[in-house]
């Protein structure tokens, strides 16, 4: 259930019996012809779909992350590492003060890895808490289904093209060769844009929706398993 659909009184009542919640993490960055909010849309939706049957509250997605390499693409907004970690700290502190002791971060953006590293430090300063950092798209079963469907898949390609992230149908479904990620990481934003072009890292832009729904179902199942536990 979404926190945005709850009142403070309902949250207070929930905390009388449970201390578990979910925090989705996203970003606002280029995704070729897809929405700039792909990572936020997917992180929040997979969290809500997974948590709904469990009755676990899901907080609004954090829509900004770490994506400096895409800064030359209009619409991309990146936080500095220190700013991002400070925001994560404030959110975790706020959840702790409210009474939440078990927190699942459902992450939709690879660049947000520092949040997971910080969570380990934060737990050391808050005995009795447990934080899980879950990259939903790269979880074992989900990624295995992606590879089984089409091994040429990456950022802004078909593997992120769901009906809820798609802006228009892709008429040209030519497969783009995979980029050299190590080479890209050594470029400044302007050179990254010149190298990537539309922004797709590699793969066809779109695959059939039945294949995407099959991947999504596995992603939701894996995320739900993380939420359910076991917990320490």
UniProtKB/TrEMBL annotation:
SUPFAM superfamilies: Creatininase
InterPro entries: Creatininase-like_sf (IPR024087), Creatininase/forma_Hydrolase (IPR003785)
Cofactor(s) recorded in Swiss-Prot or TrEMBL: Zn(2+)
Domain of life of the organism encoding this protein: Bacteria
GO biological process, one term: riboflavin biosynthetic process
Keywords annotated in UniProt: Hydrolase, Metal-binding, Zinc
GO molecular function, one term: metal ion binding
Pfam family, one: Creatininase
PANTHER family, A to Z: 2-AMINO-5-FORMYLAMINO-6-RIBOSYLAMINOPYRIMIDIN-4(3H)-ONE 5'-MONOPHOSPHATE DEFORMYLASE, 3-DEHYDRO-SCYLLO-INOSOSE HYDROLASE
Family: Belongs to the creatininase superfamily.
Name of the protein in its database record: Creatinine amidohydrolase
Lineage: Bacteria, Pseudomonadati, Pseudomonadota, Alphaproteobacteria, Rhodobacterales
